Automatic annotation (TrEMBL):
Ranges for domain ATP-grasp: 204-408
One Pfam short name: ATPgrasp_N
Keyword Repressor: no
Organism lineage string: Bacteria, Bacillati, Actinomycetota, Actinomycetes, Kitasatosporales
Keyword annotations from UniProtKB, A to Z: ATP-binding, Ligase, Nucleotide-binding
Protein's name according to its UniProt entry: ATP-grasp domain-containing protein
Matching InterPro entries: ATP-dep_AA_Ligase, ATP-grasp, BL00235/CARNS1_N
Biased composition (Low complexity): 30-41
Compositional bias (Pro residues): 509-523
GO MF, any single term: ligase activity
Length: 532
């Protein structure tokens, strides 16, 4: 799996190495063919953590900014959960999202009965089995061949040891989670709502029906649809697959020729999804890349938790300015935006969530900040890639545990109260084919920068790097007192990464290219608040 364990370092014992995410699947694919009917994955950042047992504060309704709490009450008609009536949670794992080791740590805080159904289509399940066995949890570790088999295996498990809830942290595994919850009468989103959340095309249709502000769009189902889509939306515009994650295959197309090329490339692209939707969208271009000269992008996201009939909006996270197309460059929470803008953003996200019909678990809603107000980019029925660990760094909040509680029909028992800014930086790969010729060793970086939670390079020196496998050269996460301080520190650490690239096929020589231009110096903190 990639990155190798020695290339990943974490600050303290709470930070665990993860090799089960998107890049792990692609490392597997580099040695063997992808699963039949699958497509290429996006490079979701999978840094994760758990908090210590003494980090949970009491749940204060009055002090939560966006969290609308209610008493900790389980839903009725939950089936018994086996010996001593302990709640029995099922974790569906396989690819992407919160890594299984960290997820198991969080779920074990709820109770000792945690089973796993691991979908083996993407790689060897044995490392996950070892993580589960090491925790001496009650339950069973089971493998499944694909999404449908995961449902079959889960139903059989329920016959032996009744389940109380089903949870996953991966975009690719939402469908079997929803199907199991529905068939067993457990808390969860309906398969219909999950289907809408996974389809950008269906989302846009639902938003139009419910008056939720979002970009104008046209569906593309075959090449003959391209001309009408370009005419109705206009160019330049944004081309994207309806089913996808991590900005993979999302392009700005300026001409009709670029649109045709993007469509043909999209049809040929292989993805990690074991389901398919042969629909593409051409969307109105929104100016997302930069929010003036602030160093931030003109979009953000709302991180929510749906539980026990309530929608809890925990935080707004900002995005680092985009300089390499639509490849994500990082995020920061809590937000620098002023209270009025945050309130408008949260209201927009809430309307979108209700329109889709989501009721349970984590939701990650991306919102464009436009002169006409917030507009929904997309809603995801799971936690955003690095968000669980960002909550840990900034607030000591175990988001993964609260997601598990939601799967049991329980309200949150604590609020996210931030004491510092958490920032994740994703260093994009420049367009082209490259070879990595130098980078600073991870232990050296960790020793020099105690603010780091982790550093995770995606490549070793000497390896080839291109956007075919992942969009990023490295990711790292840090904590800092303020958003401006976090952005400034991220720029310094990025320079310290020392990544140097040489164009693939170029002869060896003394002048390799430096890596991507590091982050610029941010504006003073006083200049970061966005005007209402």
């Amino acid at each position: 799996m990639w990155p190798p364990p020695e290339a990943t370092s974490h600050r303290g014992s709470r930070w665990r190495s993860c090799t089960y995410g998107w890049t792990g699947w692609w490392a597997n694919c580099s040695r063997s063919a992808p699963p039949a009917g699958s497509r290429r994955p996006s490079p979701a950042d999978d840094a994760r953590s758990r908090r210590p047992p003494d980090a949970r504060p009491p749940y204060p309704r009055s002090e939560a900014r966006h969290l609308k709490g209610r008493a900790m009450t389980p839903r009725s008609a939950r089936p018994p959960a086996g010996p001593e009536d302990q709640p029995h949670l099922l974790l569906i794992s396989g690819i992407g999202g919160h890594p299984p080791a960290a997820a198991l740590d969080s779920l074990a805080r709820i109770g000792p009965a945690v089973s796993v159904v691991h979908i083996a289509a993407w790689g060897d399940p044995e490392p996950v089995r070892a993580d589960w066995a090491a925790r001496a949890l009650r339950g069973e570790f089971l493998t499944a061949a694909d999404l449908d088999d995961a449902v079959t295996v889960g139903l059989a498990l329920h016959e032996r040891y009744p389940l109380s809830g089903v949870v996953t942290y991966s975009e690719l595994l939402l469908r079997p989670q929803a199907e199991l919850a529905e068939r067993l009468g457990l808390p969860g989103n309906t398969p219909e709502a999950v289907g809408i959340a996974q389809s950008k095309s269906r989302q846009r249709q639902v938003f139009a029906e419910h008056g939720v502000p979002s970009p104008r769009f046209a569906e593309i189902r075959e090449e003959a649809d391209l001309a009408e889509a370009a005419r109705s939306i206009g160019l330049p515009a944004v081309f994207k697959p309806s089913l996808g994650a991590g900005s993979q295959s999302v392009r700005l197309v300026r001409t009709y020729g670029e649109l045709v090329e993007a469509y043909r490339d999209g049809r040929a692209t292989v993805s990690a999804f074991l389901q398919s939707e042969d629909v593409f969208l051409l969307e109105e271009r929104l100016a997302l890349e930069a929010d003036g000269d602030s160093g931030w992008a003109a979009y953000c996201s709302v991180e929510s938790l749906l539980a026990a009939g309530e929608r809890h909006h925990l935080a707004v996270s900002d995005r680092i300015r985009l300089r390499h197309g639509y490849a994500e460059e990082g995020a920061s929470m809590p937000s620098r935006l002023d209270a009025a803008v945050q309130a408008a953003v949260v209201d927009c996200a809430d309307r979108a969530i209700r329109a889709i019909g989501l009721t349970t678990g984590a939701v990650h809603t991306e919102i464009a900040l436009t002169p006409d107000g917030p507009r929904v980019i997309e809603v995801n029925a799971r936690a955003g890639g690095p968000m669980p660990v960002m909550f840990e760094v900034g607030a000591g909040y175990d988001y993964a545990e609260q997601i598990g509680r939601s799967a049991l029909g329980l309200a949150p028992d604590t609020a996210a109260r931030f004491t510092r800014t958490a920032l994740v930086r994703m260093v994009p790969i420049p367009a082209g084919e490259w070879r990595v010729t130098a980078q600073t060793p991870v232990p050296e970086l960790m020793a020099a920068h105690p603010e780091l939670a982790y550093v995770r390079p995606r490549f070793e020196v000497g390896q080839s790097a291109s956007r075919d496998r992942t969009l990023h050269l490295a990711t790292f996460m840090l904590g800092a007192p303020t958003p401006a301080a976090a952005l400034e520190l991220a720029g310094r650490i990025e320079r310290a990464l020392g990544i140097e690239l040489r164009e693939a096929g170029a002869p060896a020589g003394p002048e390799p290219l430096p890596g991507p231009e590091p982050l610029p110096e941010p504006l003073p903190e006083s200049a970061l608040a966005r005007a209402t």
